[in-house]
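SAMPLE LOG
Freezer: B-3
Tube label: C17
Construct: single chain, 136 aa
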Amino acid sequence: MSSSPNRLVATVFGAVYLLVGLLGFAVTGGVGFIATEGGLLLGIFEVNPLHNIAHLLIGGALLVAGLANARAAKGVNTTVGAVYLLLGIVGFFLTGTAVNILALNVPDHFLHLASAVVLLGVGLGTERSIPRTAAV
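STRUCTURE (predicted):
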């Protein structure tokens, strides 16, 4: 795994996002599942139960891909990175509205953008020689 930047990043980010998803439930007691305002994780990042579940799903996908192989890790890093880039940008327009079903706040947006930069940077910038497989 250490020879593959994609596997390393996917595994580390996966473990961190799984931990964040689990810790989020400690601060969302009494918060509605899709409440537009949530509990504060680490005193700064706003989360609700749906946001916690999203972290668990993303963390699980990253961890499984990181443990599987470089091709899977590269694909998941790139996909999650693209989603986080979109969420980081769109999130600024969702805050304070009824469609903010993930209870996003400004620190969340910057964290999602930072995650996007790392995941896309590794996913798109390293291990370009990984062969693509034919669709089955």
